[in-house]
Design brief:
Chain lengths: 258, 596
């Protein structure tokens, strides 16, 4: 029976390897990255995956080998009567410390890029989350956000490709989280706080905008779409939105919404 | 030098022992063993509740809006037998709340802490038996309040076990934010009171009541872990309690600690605030991150004892093991911000939390290496308890390593609040702690009830649980890699996640198997209590003091005054012929020398 249990523990290694091989093969893996900076996150993810895989394989394999070799039913040798080894303790304290410190330092730049070094551009829009929708507010013809001619859309985020996008993120009611899986962007929207979010998209297309923080019963349906398009198309879309809004909306109503 | 006050209670115990009624012996008992077993039974029952809640969560994630067999018609007549999205939020909220506050914390500290501490240190009971009794009975208001919250108008609490305001505070924002959230908060306050009473008792008992010769560095690692856990509780709980009261005040008296000005919820402007939602997150995680260690350290301790016993070999690196428990506890207080990397907290602060979090992986790694060192060169006996303990090591490696991904701030931006974190904490808490607890039950059951559990059934239980838990939780890692968010009642209307449904179905089948496998455990547990093979004092030939007492131990625990000569891990010692060496067995040549 001892052998059987050893093999069962070995199967953990098999399971892990198979899962992490089949995952990417069957597209159960990091979604397409269309951002300029997302690859640093992916790279870091894969780098940590590689490091942890080595530790995982090493420790699980030791566990398996020791279980196999020192099975009391098969092993006639008396036990090694030892209370430990000072040298080993020092080794397996210092090496992981080095690795962990390295990971810690290695990632700092990517973190600073995505959360601390705000690009020096004018904000493209203002995003306000509320139960259970994303309210988006683009500047109207006057080029300023927060004025009467602002353009309002809901859940329909458009951005120009190949430009630094900067916007402010707020919430009207509870916590939400602005998550663009394909751009590796996530930021909680916190009521009472204004946050800045920035990224740059390199590919045109339509992608999901996900709410990633529980915001109530309708959290699951707080879905938006992001459309990345050329500058010309974006300007055209914005213009259309503006005209459509002018045509349908009574200015008094628009003012009261401010 | 450890002194003992053993004896001061034993007199009391013997004079009361036989005249006590059934109620004072088995219900309002002050005996740590009865209280431990009370905790064990209560938490195992809640384990069942929490498990069924998890199954319901899994059903919805695998087949969103599918008609629920049998119960659906009863619960959701209006929705045509489908689960409502409100109900889904209640399910995962209550699953986590029950599992964390009614199962894991009380089964470790309440059940095993209570049962093992006096026995393993050679005391006749806890330092404060009445306080101990109260610590159990203060769980009952919590059980009742939380139970009532299930049936409150509008449903149970539904803002997640983290209860982030404003969702948890402003009633208009969530249906379950009616009275259910108040009941939930009050329930947790009672859990906190209970834990605090336990914690004070454990610390005092371990410091004051060790048997002669039981120095701190002769304590079993189980006791070290329980001791440090008690310290963690004592320092972290007041902060949680304060936060819970603040949220209660916010909800009922509009104090606005956590609520900023100018909100518009459901087109209603709630009372003005002046507070900040992040304040709650800081206070909550100041407790709840250390709580993660409260939920794993005792399991680590118990697993160490089981592994050393069934490898028939001393624990490898006893002192490094002790220091790493202390290291985890110390660092555990300065890492809470890793739950808040994308919360809007100052990103520079995030960076310092990241460094501390990276470093806390170190003591955990040291522990894993020492467990491997312990089985190296041993004589491993594959008992059910040992299999569970070894699986703790194997699974904890996975749970520990996946933590590093989240600790890396840039990676966390992507995987925060996805199934990656769900995978991580289920590997730590279910595959780790729960498996360790199963091991501990199989190991100490003979002491508790005087009978052995059935081994073949135990192994079958282990095999099925092990396979199904990996089938349920391992795929969560790759779901997380896709960015699959947690807490969504229907994730598949996002294009990005639509193709993940078949895998989720597979995981749900495994979850059903995992819950079903626990029937074997229940049968074995209850059956063995009555029909198990009588165990005798020391069925595993183990060294600890608890194995020198009768099984089950009577009032006052020991029928002799235990005197300790060595640590609990002297297996295979060349000093004696047998492969174990009881802590109480006098050394052969110095038999006449009294203990120093
Ligand atoms: Cu949401
Ligand atoms: Cu934490």
């Amino acid at each position: 029976m001892g052998r059987f249990w050893c093999l069962l523990f070995f199967s953990v290694i098999v399971m892990a390897v198979v899962t992490f091989v089949l995952g990417p093969v069957y597209d159960h893996w990091l979604p397409e990255d269309i951002s300029r900076d997302g690859h640093t996150i992916d790279h870091l993810f894969l780098f940590i995956l590689a490091l942890t895989s080595i530790v995982f394989l090493g420790t699980q394999f030791c566990l398996f080998v020791f279980m196999w070799k020192y099975d009391a039913a098969k092993n006639a040798k008396p036990v090694e009567y030892t209370h430990g080894s000072h040298t080993l303790e020092v080794i397996w304290t210092i090496i992981p410390t080095g690795i962990l410190l390295f990971i810690a330092l290695y990632q700092m730049n990517a973190w600073a890029d995505s959360k601390m070094r705000r690009p020096d551009v004018a904000p493209l829009l203002e995003v306000t989350a509320r139960q259970f929708e994303w309210r988006l507010r683009y500047p109207g013809p006057d080029g300023e956000i927060g004025t009467q001619d602002d353009i309002h859309t809901v859940n329909d985020l458009h951005i120009p490709v190949n430009e630094d996008i900067l916007f402010s993120l707020k919430s009207m009611d509870v916590l939400h989280s602005f998550f663009l899986p394909n751009l590796r962007v996530k930021q909680d929207a916190v009521p009472g706080m204004k946050q800045w979010v920035w990224f740059r998209a390199l590919e045109e297309g339509e992608y999901d905008l996900v709410c990633a923080e529980l915001c109530g019963w309708g959290h699951y349906k707080m879905k938006g779409r992001i459309t990345v398009e050329s500058r010309a198309q974006f300007d055209k879309w914005l213009e259309e939105q503006y005209l459509a809004q002018e045509a349908t909306q009574d200015p008094a109503l628009a003012a009261s919404e401010n | 030098m450890s002194t003992t006050v053993a004896g001061s209670h034993s007199h009391e115990a013997s004079s009361h022992g036989h005249s006590e009624s059934f109620i004072s012996t088995y219900i309002f008992s002050k005996d740590h063993k009865i209280i431990g077993i009370q905790f064990l039974f209560s938490t195992l029952l809640w384990f069942l509740v929490g498990g069924l809640l998890a199954l319901a969560v899994r059903m919805q994630v695998a087949w969103p809006w599918a008609e629920i067999p049998i119960l659906g018609k009863l619960l959701f007549a209006a929705e045509g037998g489908q689960m409502s999205p409100e109900f889904y939020t209640m399910l995962f909220t209550m699953h986590a709340s029950v599992m964390i506050f009614f199962v894991i914390i009380p089964i470790l500290a309440g059940a095993f802490g209570n049962y093992l501490i006096p026995l393993m240190i050679g005391a006749d009971d806890m330092a404060f038996p009445t306080l101990n009794m109260l610590s159990y009975w203060f769980m009952w208001p919590a059980f009742i309040l939380m139970g009532m919250s299930f049936f409150a108008e509008g449903g149970s609490a539904s803002s997640g076990w983290t209860a982030y305001p404003p969702l948890s505070v402003i009633s208009e924002s969530a249906p379950g934010s009616g009275s259910a959230q108040d009941l939930w908060l009050l329930g947790l306050i009672f859990v906190g009171i209970s834990s605090m009473m336990g914690s004070v008792n454990y610390m005092t008992t371990i410091i004051q009541m060790r048997a002669p010769g039981m120095t701190m560095f002769r304590l079993p690692l189980t006791i070290w872990a329980m001791f440090i856990t008690a310290v963690l509780q004592a320092f972290a709980l007041p902060v949680l309690t304060a936060a819970l009261f603040m949220q209660l005040l916010d909800r009922n008296f509009a104090t606005g600690f956590f609520i900023p000005d100018g909100l518009i919820v459901n087109n209603i402007d709630p009372a003005p605030g002046g507070g900040h939602p992040l304040l709650w997150q800081h206070l909550f995680w100041f407790y709840s991150h250390p709580a993660v260690y409260i939920m794993i350290l005792p399991a680590m301790g118990m697993v160490s004892d089981i592994i050393s016993c069934f490898a028939r070999k001393p624990i490898f690196g006893y002192k490094p093991m002790v220091y790493s428990i202390c290291g985890i506890a110390g660092l555990g207080f300065i890492v809470w911000g890793h739950h808040m990397f994308v919360s809007g907290m100052n990103p520079a602060l995030g960076m310092s939390f990241m460094v501390a979090t990276m470093m806390i992986a170190l003591p955990s790694a040291v522990k894993v290496f020492n467990w491997l060192g312990t089985i190296w060169g041993g004589q491993i006996h594959y008992t059910t308890a040992m299999l569970f303990a070894l699986s703790f090591v194997s699974m904890f490696i996975i749970g520990g390593l996946s933590g590093i991904f989240m600790a890396a701030t840039p990676v966390d931006i992507f995987i925060h609040d996805t199934y990656f974190i769900v995978a991580h904490f289920h590997y730590v808490l279910f595959a780790g702690t729960a498996m360790g607890v199963f091991g501990a039950i199989y190991f100490w059951f003979p002491k508790m009830f005087g009978r052995l559990m059935n081994e073949p059934l135990g192994k079958l239980h282990f095999l099925l649980t092990f396979l199904f838990l990996n089938g349920t939780f391992f795929p969560m890692h790759i779901l997380g890699a896709v960015g699959f968010p947690r807490r969504l009642a229907d994730p598949y209307h996002y294009e990005t996640f639509r193709h993940l449904q078949p895998l989720n179905e597979f995981m749900t089948y495994c979850a059903i198997g995992m819950v079903a496998a626990q029937i074997i455990f229940a049968v074995n547990f209850i059956g063995s209590m009555f029909f198990g093979r009588p165990a005798g004092r020391n069925p595993w030939n183990a060294n600890g003091l608890e194995w020198t007492a009768p099984s089950p131990p009577g009032h006052g625990n020991f029928d002799f005054q235990p005197v300790v000569y060595r640590g609990p891990y002297e297996y295979g010692s060349p000093e004696v012929d047998s492969d174990y060496y009881l802590q109480t067995q006098p050394p052969p040549e110095t038999k006449e020398e009294a203990v120093v």
